Amino acid sequence: MALALSLGQRGQGNCWPNPAVGCVIVKDGRIVGRGWTQPGGRPHAEVVALAQAGEQARGATAYVTLEPCSHHGKTPPCADALVEAGVARVVAALQDSDPRVSGQGFEKLRMHGIEVTTGVLSEQAMRDHAGFFFRTEQGRPLVTLKMASSFDGRIATGTGQSKWITGPQARREVHAMRARHDAVMVGAGTARADDPSLTVRDLGVEHQPVRVVISRHLDLPLLSQLARTAKEVPVWLCHGPGADAERLRAWEGIGATLIPCAVLGVQLDPADVLQQLGRAGLTRVFCEGGSALAASLLAHDLVDELIGFTAGLGIGAEGLPVIGALGLGRLEEAARFDLVETRPIGADVLHRWTRRLR
């Protein structure tokens, strides 16, 4: 199962809205088939592994990180494929929460005499499939908030200079993280100040995440890197109902996808933004700021994972803080996260935290 989980991770960021599943088929103590969900979400992991195993799948055990699907979508059910291949046993980490599948895949397998074991390495599988479960159960994708800052928690100097606070090794790690998410998201302020490309570079990765910008008024430069490459790499713009019609037509004309969202106070409602992204199929979103968007997501309890890259320099109080104003009066009001790992990345330090269940 550990191998199946590692295989499934290869599909993260590349198979949404489907889950990134891994499958290993074992017969007589030997691996005869391996597979993971392919780009675009199909073929599914089980189908890939069964094709590799061929006749050796008969009487074998299939290790799968999620319950095999049992419904007819764009492809036939994986549960049927396992039955037809003559698999004797299926070991699964988790039951699917999709109401079209939940429990029915296991039931179909058992009806055909296949032994089913569940719950193996379920905690790790739950982490790997968290984005898929968030979307099927809550309608929104998992949100990872990444911020690179100085030792004193600043993301730019008082004049706005931010390139580069962290070193090249940290930036390379960020590119790898982008590749494992369906989308990279920033606020309008970051898009204007940094003119980012938000792509995965220098890793030999063919697919690119969707680039999402949150901009209520759509006041974004049409000569930016995002605008110039909108036809090559998807750009989704989340905007408010009052956005200028001429700007909407201009961005749509250069290839951007426009997503109208509800307004809450003076900004876009972050909960509605994520619901809209979930409806569009996203399961894992990598937010890279800026400080106002980070504060908005944290204030509405919408951050599931925090990733920080801290550099060994101080910028001072006049610098831009990593998180904008939250209006907290008491420490008890602040969301707490549990530390998962900390390690050096070149001259910087990476620290990763996950949501603390309440």
Descriptive account of the structure:
This protein has 358 residues and is an alpha/beta fold. It has 12 helices and 18 strands. Strands 11-10-9-8-14-6-15-18-17 form a 9-stranded mixed β-sheet, sandwiched between helices. The longest helix has 12 residues, at 168-179. It starts with a helix and ends with a strand. The relative contact order is 0.12.
Fraction of residues in β-strands:
15-25%
Q: Residue ranges: pLDDT <50 for 5 or more in a row?
A: none
Oligomeric state of the chains in view = single chain
State the total count of DSSP E strands: 18
Termini separation: 29 Å
Notable characteristics:
globular, nine-stranded mixed sheet, 358 residues, alpha/beta, 12 helices
What does this entry show, briefly?
The chain is built from twelve helices and 18 strands. By secondary structure, the chain is α/β, with parallel strands linked by helices.
SSE map:
Blueprint: H1 2-8, E1 22-27, E2 30-36, H2 45-53, E3 61-64, H3 78-85, E4 89-92, H4 104-111, E5 115-118, H5 122-128, H6 130-138, E6 142-149, E7 154-156, H7 168-179, E8 183-187, H8 188-194, E9 210-214, H9 225-228, E10 235-239, H10 245-253, E11 257-260, E12 263-264, E13 267-268, H11 270-279, E14 284-287, H12 291-299, E15 305-310, E16 320-321, E17 337-345, E18 348-355
Parallel strand pairs: 3-4, 4-5, 6-14, 6-15, 8-9, 8-14, 9-10, 10-11
Antiparallel strand pairs: 1-2, 1-3, 7-16, 12-13, 15-18, 17-18
